[in-house]
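Morning. Coffee machine broken again, so started the prediction first thing and wrote up yesterday's gels while waiting. Chain of 199 residues, entered below exactly as on the submission form.
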Amino acid sequence: MIEVEKKFILSEQDKKQLTKDAEFLSERVFSDIYYDTEKFLLTSQDKWLRSRDRVFELKLPLHNGVERLADQYDELEDEQKIRRALNLLPNKNLADDLIKAGYFPFCTCKTTRRKYKKGLFIIDLDIVDFQDFTYNIAEIELLVSDKSEIESAIEMIMDFAKSQNLTITPARGKIIEYLKRAKPNHYQTLVKKKVVKDF
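Came back before lunch.
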């Protein structure tokens, strides 16, 4: 499946409006560790490798450039596919093999996520704890099965956001926000590589 998502910074009033008449699905707390090389080999290509509660996931971009209305990623959760994407030989332990290949953790965070469903849309309300600061962000997402459906999914998300009276402005994802605040050198590299739009 392909995840098409748009991030929003919401006021308390926005949250009430968005979750009104929505089906509450779950609340969970999870820990993420994000990995990259010293030269930002992955993130400078908008590739995001993380371990979420010790399960590895690799997000590969399907969008082009920073002038996009929403993010589209292919998510690899199968360890063998992740190894192939990173050119890692099959071995016993992926975490150890990553370290041997020069990958190391650059961000650790804990997220409390409340998940809702409203119509076709999944809504995630996240409170992210980076220890030095917390960040509140929302995502509205649609899952599609084929790349040909991406554009219409973006339009649907935008129309839905407008119908909920949400303000549509740029919003940094949680890891981008962390890099901007805590690791400006890494952040500026992503700006220069046109992975991130600075605002």
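The helical segments are 12-19, 79-85, 94-100, 150-163, 174-182, 184-192. Going to sketch it on the whiteboard this afternoon.
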